[in-house]
Amino acid sequence: MFFCISFLSNAQDYFPKNDGVKQSFKNHVAITNATIYVSATQKIDKATLLFKEGKIVDVGTNITLPKNATIIDASGKTIYPSFIDLYSEFGIDKPKPTIPKGFSREYDSSREGFYWNDHIKPEYNAYENLSYDTKTAASLRNIGFGTVVSHHNDGVIAGTGLLWTLNDEDNNAKRILNTKISQHFTFSRSKLSNQSYPSSLMGSMALIRQVYHDSKWYAAGNSKTKDLSLDSFIANKNLLQIFEAGDILNKLRANKIGKEFGVNYLIKGDGDEFVKIEEIKKTRATYIIPLNFPEAYDVSDPYLAQQVSLSDMKFWNQAPFNLKIVAENDVNFVLTASDNKDAKDFLSNLRKAVLYGLPKEKALAALTEIPAKLLNQSSVIGSLNKGSLANFIIVSGDIFEEKSTIHENWVQGNRNIIDKMNIEDIRGDYDLTFNNETFELKLSGELDKLEAKVSKDSIEYGTKTTYKEPWISFVVKTKDTVNTSYYRLTGVKNKNTLEGKAILENGKETVWTATKKEITDKKEDKKEDKKNEPKVPEMIPVSFPNIAFGNSEKPKQERILFKNATVWTGEKEGNLTDTDVLIENGKIIQIGKNISNSNAKIIDATGKHLTAGIIDEHSHIAVSKGVNEGGQNSSAEVTIEDVVNSDDINIYRNLSGGVTSANLLHGSANPIGGRAAFIKLKWGYTPDEMIIKDAPKYIKFALGENVKQSNWGSGRFPQTRMGVEQVYEDYFSRALEYKKEWANFNNNKSKNKVTPRFDIEMEVLVQILDKKRFITCHSYVQSEINMLMKLAERYNFKIQTFTHILEGYKVADKMAEHGVGGSTFADWWGYKYEVKDAIPYNAALMNGQGVVVSINSDDAEMSRRLNQEAAKAVKYGNVSEETAWNFVTLNPAKLLQVDDKVGSIKVGKDADVVLWTDNPLSIYAKAEKTIIDGIIFYDLEKEAATLASIQKQRSILTNDLLEAKNKGLKTQAPKKKEIGHYHCDTVGENCKVAHSKYQ
Question: Which letter does DSSP use for residue 744 in this model?
Fold first, then answer.
């Protein structure tokens, strides 16, 4: 609709014009005597650019000009191809959200004939929703852009973008170069729909995967119904696929999805690629990188300054170096102005990036050649070769130099004057004479914003000036301190003199002259220029991760020999005193006395205790943007493995408490939750390096108040404990049917058979039925615990672990008979109604019935003290110290079926060990060294040096920030980074309690 209206209101050449005269300038135009960059790597000096009717006819030094050509002399000027922005929302007529505040979530799609999820909108076409904005177009042209890809950034799959020019003079028929040039993806929901799913990052990722599976199935003709969204998605698959990912980990996540489905995304980031440059390099993707460097923090108030995290301070220092590092590592990239609130900041930040080390030719290529090539439009835009559009900018000098000015930006042969090209420079020092008095006049600043200062005998007279060549005028305040009055001077330039008429304060007219002074000391001017040259600061080194307590380099594996320790083996050997343990190649290779190894790092463990690393069976640390996907009553399709956050400070805090592994669980918002991720806490490593890929796979189920939504309003089924059981019955009966359908298909030899739909959710449930995936179930009340065990037995599988299980002591015998373990709290009780019967003796009582028992945290704070939580079992239940210690080491390993690798100190197991200063069950014990796979990830002896280094970096950066403010640079108020903790009931992407001091 909008597209058609635009055509009618901006008529084509053959349309009659009834609102004025019709004139078309179609002769040749020649820009002569310029330095011309035909491309990023081809420069021609003293060259001519010839074009006609919006297209380049010729470029070079020996061009014969047509007789009727309009000639524009560009001596001393430089011409570049106009820039191209592949990521813009320019000119998109965006519909306004219509969802009222406080409106309850919807669980079904509001559309018919489209995909089942409203956040999937490949059918949206930007070209059908245009409203060309001349003001915004001018702001983009003013910083060098001539062509943009416009799209509406709304929805997980946001539809298509168009390629068009910033051509005010013509209409959309000429502006639009391609109506559908790109298809756009994000990890964010549509603002125009209240459909609940997805409500998390992992939900968005699962939804994208399912769309790819569905489109393949649909394209093969297997569907009985029409789906307009899938039709569009399939039609768009050959377009440029652009993924707005965001932060560094999300960029890696987007690339991972692309690789899974054979799609090379063009990935839009947020300028932090340098943080994990090796991983970015390995993706071999092309990145759209914004130039929105953070403003300096105003740290003049020392108390408010404490709110600024070290990571934010570092990013302020490091961000301008990003493109230098990206270019050095041969990562392909283009640039965008989309994230700049003020378009002018793009050009200044581009120049800053070049100053900080980005090669000019790579900067120019990223704005011209590379985007044109990605769009398959190299013959049309991105260069000034013959046949290309006449899209170019005329600059006073080198575009990447601070003092250079963009004079003109020609788009499709239409001239846009930004800053008059041959304006005469009248800046300098003058002797100003009028009314028989002589003053000193200094003209400075930019020519379009000239500044004047009039003074005499060290007294300054307030002066305002305007300069529009050839006219210049001044308003000068008189020296009368009683009555406010002014001199008004107007004149023109005549050689080295400014002259004209003056109106005195009494209204009399006279003449004035200003004679330019000769520059007498060029050396002093050069010294002043050099003094004012911008300086490149020293870049604060990137740490792993790039926050406080990050490592200066990734820790490496070592050969380590512990001498004379008290070794808690966790095995039948029990505790061994004065014992040596040798680890090598990430494994425990020898346990005994008087072990020697000349090549090993010797650690004197006399008087200290060596244990297996603590394993937290139920954790929610290290998860990005949502621990619950509660948008549906089953979310088996999502997985925490997609959203492991390797930069979470809680990893380091857990290491300081002796935790080496954690089972990251989905929350308890729905009966069937998402899949789990078992990780080792390798601080400074990537998510993929932390995930234990060969560990048995788990999924989170849940019972009780959370899943029936007792404590928050929602209309989603189920609303009762009876309904929870029916959810399980429904999904497992459907999974059996799904399994049967695929079995029949695979056994059917017919060529005309219809392929069943591949359903990620059903695939996971079939894994449970096939005993290839195991259930950890959030549970409290004995009746529901019994229900789920019976249901599992009916479907011929068993529950692996009941977590929380605070009424486990009531059904411990039945648990032992079923073969399910119990992962519980040491002494939590009474925090909600269904916990009223909890007792601190629960762990000991279940253990006494033969249940494999572990103690977990479910909390980022408690997980740092799991050694003390284990000790409570000695008090409450009188279990032995060794048994209590196994509650947080060997037993969780058994529940997770990794006890052949971790959980105890035994030859051949992984070298995941902790050296304690005291008995690990003591409240005085500290983890002195925490080691994973033979790598020291936490060292108490280095903690003081680490804290001193943090303070030193903060001091250096604080001084730099203060200096930036003193220089007059833009500043922002200190902001506290809120890093919260997820719990089972956290709904949405945001956490609860914040702990941000050392981020």
Answer: H
Tokens of 968: 């007059």
Cα-based torsion angle of the residue sequence 252, 255, 261, 264 in order, rounded to the nearest 10 degrees: -170
The region, left, alpha or beta by phi > 0 then psi within -120 to 50, assigned to residue 98 is alpha
Confidence check: pLDDT of 293 > 90: yes
Cα–Cα distance for residue pair 619/368, rounded to 1 Å:
48
Q: How many other C-beta atoms are found inside a 10 Å radius of the C-beta of residue 363?
A: 21
Please give the pLDDT value at position 711: 62
pLDDT, tens digit (0-9, with 9 covering 90-100), for 86-114: 999 999 998 887 665 555 567 788 899 99
Per-residue pLDDT tens for 631-654? 899 999 999 999 999 999 999 999
Asked whether the beta carbons of 620 and 858 are under 8 A apart, the reply is: yes
- Give the pairing of strands 575-584 and 428-434: unpaired
User: Please, what sign has the CA dihedral across residues 7, 12, 15, 20?
Assistant: positive
Segment 603-611 shows an average pLDDT of 98
Residue with tokens 């051509």: 167
- CA–CA gap between residue 90 and residue 338 (Å, rounded): 9
CB-based contacts of 966, cutoff 8 Å, min separation 6:
none
Q: How confident is the model at residue 5 (pLDDT cuts 50, 70, 90)?
A: very low
Is the pLDDT score of 699 beyond 50? yes
**Rounded Cα distance, 438 and 430, in Å:** 10
CB-CB contact of 363 with 350 (8 Å): yes
Two structure tokens written together for 814: 């039945």
Helix segments in 625-752, DSSP class H? 649-656, 687-690, 721-747
At residue 391, φ and ψ (nearest 5 deg) are -110, 105
- Kindly write down the DSSP assignment for every residue of 1-14, as one continuous string: -HHHHHHHHS--TT
Residue type, 160: T
How confident is the model over 71-86, as pLDDT tens digits? 999 999 999 999 999 9
- Report the alpha-carbon distance of residue 888 to residue 776 in Å, rounded: 16
Q: For the segment 573-602, what is each residue's pLDDT rounded down to a tens digit?
A: 999 999 999 999 999 999 999 999 999 999
E-assigned strands of 741-846? 773-779, 801-804, 821-824
Residue 632: C-alpha distances to residues 106, 636, 728, 733 (Å): 10, 10, 13, 18
CB 444 within 8 A of CB 451: yes
Instruction: Give the Cα separation of 472 and 452 in Å (integer).
Output: 11
Separation CA 627–CA 617 (nearest Å) = 16
**Residue 699 is inside which H or E element, if any?**
strand 697-702
- Residue 381 is given by DSSP the state S
C-alpha–C-alpha distance, residues 610 and 631, integer Å: 45
Q: Are residues 588 and 947 in contact, defined by beta-carbon separation less than 8 angstroms?
A: no
Mean pLDDT across 750-776: 95
Residue 29: phi and psi, rounded to 5, are -125, 135
What is the pTM (predicted TM-score) of this model? 0.91
Look up residue 383 and give its DSSP letter. Answer: S
Residues 780 and 799: their CA atoms lie apart, in Å, by 15
How would you classify the pairing of strands 437-446 and 296-297? unpaired
> Phi and psi of 174, rounded to 5°?
-100, -35
Mean pLDDT for 530-540 is 80
- Confidence band (pLDDT; 50, 70, 90) for 710? low
Distance, in Å, from the CA atom of 145 to the CA atom of 411, rounded to the nearest integer, reads 9
Question: Would you give the DSSP letter of residue 62?
Answer: S
Which has the closest alpha carbon to 762: 737, 743, 793? Answer: 737
Question: Kindly report the CA angle at 283 between 282 and 286, in degrees rounded to 5?
Answer: 120
- pLDDT-above-90 percentage for the chain: 83
User: CA triplet 259, 262, 265: central angle to 5 degrees?
Assistant: 70
pLDDT in tens, 916-945: 999 999 999 999 999 999 999 999 999 999
